[in-house]
């Protein structure tokens, strides 16, 4: 009896497992498996005696390690067998797919007795695949050629069938049975198509001959011409709003369509009468078109002048359509009727009477619009169309109100174009003026003794003052940039850039000069203050200081301030001046609507005796700050 874990028992278990695997896959031979396992057993037994004995492993450990080696070997073996089986399945699937396609193509092409090389016994799947591939390519090429032949014949059949159906022969069922099917591309089917094509060609020839004989036997050229003339008369009568029956009856009574008892007269007199009638109607159409166009053009002018709503214009939409059509394209019934023209003429007459009563109002309205545009872009409007002058001219009858209105409209268009070209510079002017207002506010804020009091809203003014100081530092660069932009505009337009009648460059240069003078004045005030402080210090050292008997409030400035809710005063923005004792900054607004004066305020001097000892230091400083107050805006030092 074999011991569990012995080499022989282990070898038998390995052999049994391999045999089960070989039976499941049925790919490799049993002899190869047994040889592999006996080789494995021999190697393991030899290695076991040599290595494990040296290590001193126990029999249980030897069995465990032997089982692990056996399992790993079987896994490798199983994986290799599965890969081989998968490769075989893929080859078999490819061969089967191509053989199926070959069978389908052979059936479609009708080649049923072809002996395929695939029917021969081949050694392997790869050889089968190599033999079926060329055959498949050849059949595909045959299919494409056969389909081209079918498509060519089918297109000819469809063309001829369409020509036959144009002769009013039934053709709905002729092509339905000839639908091209890829499942049947045999020579028999191709022959059927060719036969049907020949049949249709014969039928086409027969129908053509039949139609030609009927045409020349039943209808004469004269009758066709009479019918054409009659149709043209019918069209013209419809456009002009005339009675067709009465018109053709004047030529010949047989031309009325209601007259079925009498055949149509095709004599030379009928031809001449129809030709004269057509020429007469065309002349009348031309006259009415011109009259309607003139009336509609007058309507457009009055509508634009009177600001007529779109609903009133839509009433004449049919008449308006004539303007964009040529004479031959005017075919709408009744569009040139007498009623349509009279309706448009009546509207023109009504609007003309209304225009006379509203002309002065329209002139004034357009003039106000012109003045508003000019005010927004700061240019001077044309004085020749001023409101007073326009009223006087209209009342006196010296000028046509329409011409005056057209003149104002032209001025409005010109002003709008100029506003568009001045937009960039005007935007920069607005930013500059806004910065100037912030500068003026900062000047007033700096002169407020209570600006650092901890009241409600004081922190808001402090933040605004910080932003204003940053903005003020950008003013010189803004002015220089504005001057360069203005000069470039003047160079491009070949004209001066005027702002409320004054050249903008001159305003900016004056502003720069005034600003420079103000800076010099501030610097001079600072130097004088230093000298004054030095003199006061020396006098105090010689004569001694004397306390002031009273407090002076002459530093406060009531103008340009408002209460902020906690007893303190907050300066309000202003533009006309920059502070007491300094030159006025001449902005465009100060040019256009300035109020003369520099808002200087006289400071009341102290009533103490006129000697250097009696004049208190506080009064002296107060008097001095009333002159150079704009420089005392820095926060007090602790």
From TrEMBL:
<dbReference type="Pfam" id="PF03999">
    <property type="entry name" value="MAP65_ASE1"/>
</dbReference>
<dbReference type="GO" id="GO:0005737">
    <property type="term" value="C:cytoplasm"/>
</dbReference>
<dbReference type="GO" id="GO:0008017">
    <property type="term" value="F:microtubule binding"/>
</dbReference>
<dbReference type="InterPro" id="IPR007145">
    <property type="entry name" value="MAP65_Ase1_PRC1"/>
</dbReference>
<keyword id="KW-0206">Cytoskeleton</keyword>
<feature type="compositionally biased region" description="Polar residues">
    <location>
        <begin position="565"/>
        <end position="575"/>
    </location>
</feature>
<keyword id="KW-0597">Phosphoprotein</keyword>
<dbReference type="GO" id="GO:0005819">
    <property type="term" value="C:spindle"/>
</dbReference>
<comment type="similarity">
    <text>Belongs to the MAP65/ASE1 family.</text>
</comment>
<feature type="coiled-coil region">
    <location>
        <begin position="74"/>
        <end position="101"/>
    </location>
</feature>
<dbReference type="GO" id="GO:0005874">
    <property type="term" value="C:microtubule"/>
</dbReference>
<keyword id="KW-0175">Coiled coil</keyword>
<keyword id="KW-0539">Nucleus</keyword>
<protein>
    <submittedName>
        <fullName>Microtubule-associated protein, MAP65/Ase1/PRC1</fullName>
    </submittedName>
</protein>
<keyword id="KW-0963">Cytoplasm</keyword>
<keyword id="KW-0493">Microtubule</keyword>
<dbReference type="GO" id="GO:0005634">
    <property type="term" value="C:nucleus"/>
</dbReference>
<feature type="region of interest" description="Disordered">
    <location>
        <begin position="542"/>
        <end position="594"/>
    </location>
</feature>
<dbReference type="GO" id="GO:0000226">
    <property type="term" value="P:microtubule cytoskeleton organization"/>
</dbReference>
């Amino acid at each position: 009896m074999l011991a569990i874990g012995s080499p022989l028992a282990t070898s038998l278990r390995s052999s049994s497992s391999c045999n089960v695997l070989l039976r499941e896959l049925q790919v490799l031979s049993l002899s190869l498996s047994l040889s592999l396992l006996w080789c494995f057993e021999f190697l393991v037994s030899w290695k076991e005696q040599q290595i494990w004995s040296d290590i001193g492993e126990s029999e249980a450990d030897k069995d465990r390690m032997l089982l692990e080696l056996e399992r790993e070997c079987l896994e490798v073996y199983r994986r290799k067998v599965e890969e081989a089986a998968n490769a075989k399945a893929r080859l078999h699937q490819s061969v089967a797919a191509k053989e199926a396609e070959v069978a389908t193509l052979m059936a479609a092409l009708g080649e049923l007795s072809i002996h395929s090389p695939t029917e021969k016994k081949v050694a392997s799947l790869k050889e089968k695949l190599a033999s079926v591939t060329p055959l498949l390519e050849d059949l595909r090429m045959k299919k494409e050629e056969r389909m081209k032949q079918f498509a060519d014949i089918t297109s000819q059949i469809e063309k001829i069938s369409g020509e036959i159906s144009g002769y009013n022969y039934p053709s709905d069922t002729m092509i339905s049975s000839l639908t091209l099917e890829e499942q049947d591309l045999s020579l028999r089917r191709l022959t059927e198509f060719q036969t049907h094509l020949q049949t249709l060609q014969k039928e086409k020839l027969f129908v053509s001959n039949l139609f030609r004989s009927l045409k020349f036997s039943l209808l004469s050229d004269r009758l066709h011409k009479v019918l054409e003339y009659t149709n043209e008369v019918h069209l013209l009568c419809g456009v002009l709003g005339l009675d067709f029956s009465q018109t053709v009856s004047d030529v010949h009574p047989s031309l009325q369509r209601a007259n079925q008892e009498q055949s149509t007269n095709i004599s030379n007199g009928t031809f001449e009468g129809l030709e004269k009638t057509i020429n007469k109607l065309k002349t009348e159409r031309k006259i009415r078109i011109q009259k309607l166009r003139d009336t509609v053009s007058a309507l457009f002018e009055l509508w634009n002048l009177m600001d007529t709503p779109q609903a009133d214009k839509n009433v004449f939409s049919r008449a308006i359509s004539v303007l964009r059509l040529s004479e031959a394209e005017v075919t709408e019934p009744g569009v040139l009727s007498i009623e349509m023209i009279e309706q448009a003429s009546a509207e023109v007459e009504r609007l003309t009477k209304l225009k006379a009563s509203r002309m002065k109002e329209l002139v004034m309205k357009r003039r106000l619009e012109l003045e508003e545009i000019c005010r927004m872009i700061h240019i001077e409007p044309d004085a020749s169309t001023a409101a007073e002058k326009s009223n006087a001219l209209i009342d006196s009858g010296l000028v046509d109100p329409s011409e005056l209105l057209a003149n104002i409209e032209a001025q409005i268009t010109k002003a709008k174009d100029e506003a568009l070209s001045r937009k960039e510079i005007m935007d920069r002017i607005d930013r500059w003026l806004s910065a100037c207002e912030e500068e003026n506010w900062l000047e007033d804020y700096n002169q407020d003794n209570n600006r650092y009091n901890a009241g409600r809203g004081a922190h808001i003014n402090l933040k605004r003052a910080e932003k204003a100081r940053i903005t003020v530092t950008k003013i010189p660069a803004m002015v220089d940039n504005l001057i360069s932009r203005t000069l470039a505009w003047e160079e491009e337009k070949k004209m001066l850039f005027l702002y409320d009648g004054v050249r903008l460059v001159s305003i900016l240069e004056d502003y720069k000069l005034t600003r420079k003078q103000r800076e010099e004045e501030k610097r001079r005030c600072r130097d004088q203050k230093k000298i004054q402080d030095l003199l006061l210090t020396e006098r105090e050292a010689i004569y001694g200081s004397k306390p002031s008997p009273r407090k002076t409030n002459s530093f406060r400035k009531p103008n340009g301030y408002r209460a902020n809710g906690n007893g303190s005063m907050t300066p309000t923005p202003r533009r006309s001046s920059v502070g007491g004792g300094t030159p006025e900054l001449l902005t465009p607004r100060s040019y256009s609507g300035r109020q003369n004066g520099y808002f200087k305020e006289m400071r009341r001097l102290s009533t103490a005796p006129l000697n250097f000892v009696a004049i208190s230091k506080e009064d002296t400083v107060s008097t001095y700050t009333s002159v150079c107050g704009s420089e005392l805006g820095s926060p007090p030092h602790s």
